[in-house]
């Protein structure tokens, strides 16, 4: 994802991109437009009526006329009150709903992106995009858009009145606006760029905070609190500069719009009085004109203030849409052929690499039969976890093909694949919640089951005694911080995976931090899985892999059969290694 | 209204800026008040037949030009001031956090702090850059326009000005409802941050379990709460602006009827009537602004209260001033540690002479990591003493202690810096020390394979490194400071046996004077250690040499037996 470039799209095309978000609100928008038209219509008619009253009633001392006008206007004002309240409600609600939908869209999109995306992007920056950047869009949709539409309607209305009442005077009054338009067009690209930089800097700030807080204990243990402060100061300063530059770029707007307004008044005064002296227009009309100018340039000034908000929203939208447009590079491929295979999983000359490290795995050939237990051993960094990750389709191979049950692994839907292939990660991850919630997380068979049946399942699988390690049993809270030990987390991860009864279970150093006695209990649990379950175990502890049917030695991105345990140990101890 | 005072208490520090902002703002607004008068004068000279375009135009243009300049400077100053306030506030919060204890940061949760530093401070910044100025300039306009109205025609003026108290009453009603709503909205942002955070950090797991729907379901809940809260706030505010417009329309009616009457009976000129309209126009704008601003001020106040909470949190001093070169004698006397209400270490005591090697064994959740946390001073003991060379650990000067005690944590923490910077993370690390540390941790081969060697950037959370590589990096980091005491938490869990042997031998050879404490699962590697401590459920079950424990502790024997079958392979 491009974190350092600014897309050169025009404001118009960007607004065009925002429109799909409003598609579902068509009905509401229509209502809103109606209320805006009514309220503004009334607002716009008033100056004209006022001018008319001055000429025909005040100047002619017609009290009846004055009272009639006053009465009529009062009713009109009441209508305007009701409609503008309705309008605010409509637009506000539209804004909230759009924001809601937008946030869901982005979050859902994040869920569908492959792992490689998360390796490339910092958590803090992503959080910033979903929260901060969408908030800018929110401010635009809920507050700014309302004022924007009100202003635009007023401007169009007043402008029309100005031209209709006396086209020569009207034109003269509108010339300063033309100048403003040109000015705005000329500077908007520059302003947008500055705003994009400011948002980027905020994303960077967010990312830095995120990382530093996660790493706090190392900062303390190595007494580098100064590092924490210094890093923060650097990012803070970058943010400061970017924000100031963005702000200054748009500081000229308001003052220029003000002076345009005043120039227009001057023009109307001079030219208007000239016309009045020739009896082409009346004084009353002039008065109306002056009010209409205010009704024209006032909202125009509003728009100047809001323009910055719009630019910010557009820049935010760019960042957000980058996520939305990110390609999903692990698509489910159509199944071409499938043949009966007595192997559960097969690697055919598989190769894999990352952009920075192209040869992580080379020419891997594996043939795993159902029901057997396999072990992968080897020096650290040799490629064991990568091999396992490919089995679970966290990545696609760069070369070769992986077959599961006779079919290309890529042809399985996410649901199918994750049901059949279980993976216990090296670093256990738990969500905020209770132990029970974590154990049954995203387990499709237990979504509708109640608490009792879940606990009963735990008993049946022989996992109950593991819960004695937890203070409050299944209700022990997990808060994502260090409330429970690493070993305990691995226990939960273990239970979570086993309860899904996968056909292939991969354990990536899943018991590394668990003591050997508890590990034996876990072994017993594994033994209770159906005999057809295939297990792939990655471990450094020899007693963990003691009972494997076959052992593979993985080193330097290559895999070879290691025969029996003694053979494997010899290779480990004496074989050439690199990592 | 106590919160409001606190938000405003930010201002005295920036009095220079604020004085400048206020002056320019007042100046500009006062100038703008003269325009209607010029217009009125123009119209009246016309009706009296003495109209001269030049005498009207020149003051117009001059005043306009001056206003342009002053408003532009005002704008820039406002931006600079608000960003300055935000930046200063952020640094203050960061500095405050940096001085806090580890337990504070844990309990406050990273997502809340993140919200504080971003969204909350943004809201406060808005107050300074826009809220404050608009508040004052609106007041100036209000007062100025009111004065002009009264001066032009006091009778009509008074009638028109009736609308001000009505609006004030309305503001008060709205303000009182709104404070709590904004506090709630920031809390919701906390939750949003946390949910997003977990789903990013747990991305791998979610894909492995196909948990995307579960995550989206969680997110929708928080997102819906955010929407509901937003709608509540909307309900309160959507009545404000229509009401303001209505009340000022009533003023227009007053001008039409009563003003019209005054013109008819000759107490007002038509020009003055026009001026009245202009002034009412000028009055509406600040009213509307105050309406928009009250929204912002309520939001800023709520945010400030949250930030103040962090800034005002009490600081527990992180250590004393005792500085000494450690010999390496370590002693724990009746140490107990609790995590909240839940005890994790109970009355633990042992004594380890310098230069010895000690292993700590025990089942999962025995409290082994907590023991090491206490030894590094990360977690203070609830009771009992932790002594280095007979001095309590908390009495040591923090830098002195941490430059002599090296810790390798169980979970890999690798910074988004180069390999070199990751290893040389401690204070004043010498190049020779780095070399030695790398050799000891068997990292040389690995670093040679990296594209930029030492200067290769390690990605966030070290995702491009394997578990064992990260652990060895952390070991090198701890060794690079040339510590007197080395604490290893389950170090060899992620490293194969061969490497493990070599590394531990290297440590013994290259750092002979170290007091080593190693939490481990494997008895085989530590059989010849000077001291072995068996920890279970927070208590020391047994301690001594391997031989002693084999004779006296049945639990120890049980552990040994569970590993015996493969021990033979490893020699």
- Continuous helix count of chain A: 18
Estimate the global geometry of chain B from the Cα principal axes. Answer: elongated
Q: Mean pLDDT of chain B, nearest integer?
A: 83
How can the largest sheet of chain A be summarized? Answer: 6 strands, mixed
Describe this structure in words.
The complex is a heterodimer of chains A (579) and B (571). Chain A has helices at residues 11-18, 26-58, 63-112, 115-120, 123-165, 167-214, 216-221, 225-249, 253-277, 283-324, 384-391, 414-420, 435-439, 451-460, 486-498, 516-528, 542-545, 565-574; strands at 345-352, 361-368, 373-377, 399-404, 407-408, 421-424, 433-434, 477-478, 504-508, 534-538, 550-555, 558-561. With 579 residues, chain A is an alpha/beta fold. In chain A, the strands form three sheets. In chain A, strands 6-9-10-3-11-12 form a six-stranded mixed sheet, with helices on both faces. Chain A has a four-stranded antiparallel sheet with strand order 2-1-4-5, covered by helices on one side. Helix content of chain B is 65%, strand content 11%. Chain B has 21 helices and ten strands. In chain B, helix 1 crosses helix 11, helix 2 packs antiparallel against helix 11 and helix 7 (163-201) packs antiparallel against helix 10. The N and C termini of chain B lie far apart (75 Å). Classes of the chains: A alpha/beta (579), B alpha/beta (571). At the A-B interface, helix 2, helix 3, helix 4, helix 5 and helix 6 of A face helix 2, helix 3, helix 4, helix 5 and helix 7 of B.
SSE diagram, text form:
The complex is a heterodimer of chains A (579) and B (571).
Chain A: H1 11-18, H2 26-58, H3 63-112, H4 115-120, H5 123-165, H6 167-214, H7 216-221, H8 225-249, H9 253-277, H10 283-324, E1 345-352, E2 361-368, E3 373-377, H11 384-391, E4 399-404, E5 407-408, H12 414-420, E6 421-424, E7 433-434, H13 435-439, H14 451-460, E8 477-478, H15 486-498, E9 504-508, H16 516-528, E10 534-538, H17 542-545, E11 550-555, E12 558-561, H18 565-574
Parallel strand pairs in A: 3-10, 3-11, 6-9, 9-10
Antiparallel strand pairs in A: 1-2, 1-4, 4-5, 7-8, 11-12
Helix pairs in contact in A: 1-10, 2-3, 2-5, 2-10, 3-5, 5-6, 5-10, 6-8, 6-9, 6-10, 9-10
Chain B: H1 2-8, H2 15-47, H3 53-98, H4 102-108, H5 110-152, H6 154-161, H7 163-201, H8 203-209, H9 212-237, H10 240-264, H11 270-311, E1 330-339, E2 342-352, E3 357-361, H12 368-376, E4 383-388, E5 391-392, H13 398-402, E6 405-408, H14 419-423, H15 431-440, H16 444-449, H17 467-480, E7 485-489, H18 497-510, E8 515-519, H19 523-526, E9 531-536, E10 539-544, H20 546-552, H21 554-567
Parallel strand pairs in B: 3-8, 3-9, 6-7, 7-8
Antiparallel strand pairs in B: 1-2, 1-4, 4-5, 9-10
